[in-house]
Amino acid sequence: MSSRRKRFRRCLLIGLPLVFIVVAAAGVGMYLIRNEFVREFLAIGESWSDSDIRETKRRAEPIIAAIEAFREQNGRLPASLDDLAPDFLSAIESPTVGDGAWSYAIMRSEADHFNLVVFSRYRQSGLYNGPEALWYDSMSRSWQVMRDDS
Fold first, then answer.
1. What local confidence, expressed as pLDDT, does residue 143 receive?
2. For residues 78 and 138, what is the distance between their CA atoms, to the nearest angstrom?
3. Burial class of residue 72 in the structure, from the number of CB atoms within 10 Å of its CB (0-12 exposed, 13-18 middle, 19+ buried)
4. What's residue 7's pLDDT?
5. Which residue of 60, 97, 101, 122 has the fewest CB atoms within a 10 Å radius of its CB?
6. Residue boundaries of the structural domains of the chain
7. Rounded-to-10 torsion of CA 108, 125, 99, 55
8. Closest Cα to residue 34, out of 44, 47, 23?
9. Rounded to whole angstroms, how far apart are CA atoms 90 and 84?
10. How many CB atoms lie within 10 A of CB 49?
11. Residue 52's CB: how many other CB atoms inside 10 A?
12. The whole model's pTM is what?
């Protein structure tokens, strides 16, 4: 057998399994990225970086100010964030963390107390160990990043 043929055969013996391994790894990687279970476990697609939390708080400032202005003018808190438009707020910017939506709640025990919250889209996953929510409390006028401590 010629040395050229031997080299070709050696390349096939090494190269083909290597190509197979690379293609299989790419396929497994694509499956894992698209798999919701893995996405929840790794929290892919949801940022909770310090800069994103700061930006979300910044975006909440006009909402909080509009809620306070609504209360000042009407003697009560708005029933929902939709009540703020268009008189108190022309647009509501989405949060940059979590599920990308604001949750607003009036605390029934305190008629003049409200919470503005952004929840993690993965908060109810048993495997997720990231932040559960970014929570603004109007009574203390402070923010908290809530985590599941269980």
1. 96
2. 14
3. exposed
4. 73
5. 101
6. 3-34, 50-147
7. 90
8. 44
9. 8
10. 10
11. 16
12. 0.67
Rounded to whole angstroms, how far apart are CA atoms 138 and 82? 18
Cα 118 to Cα 135: distance, rounded to the nearest angstrom:
7
- The one-letter amino acid code at 138 reads S
What is 50-147's CATH topology?
A: Pantoate--beta-alanine Ligase; Chain: A,domain 2 (3.30.1300)
CA distance 47 to 39: 12
Query: 33 in helix, strand or coil?
Result: helix
For residue 115, give both structure tokens.
């919470």
* Tokens encoding 70: 């609504």
Q: What is the mean pLDDT of residues 116-137?
A: 78
What percentage of the chain exceeds 90 in pLDDT?
44
| Sheet (strand 114-119) strand order | 103-106, 114-119, 131-137, 142-147
**Both tokens assigned to 132:** 């559960």
- Measured between alpha carbons, how far is 113 from 105 in angstroms, rounded to an integer? 9
- Which SS3 state, helix, strand or coil, does residue 50 take? helix
Q: Report helix, strand or coil for 135.
A: strand
Residue 133: DSSP 8-state: E
H or E stretch at 136: strand 131-137
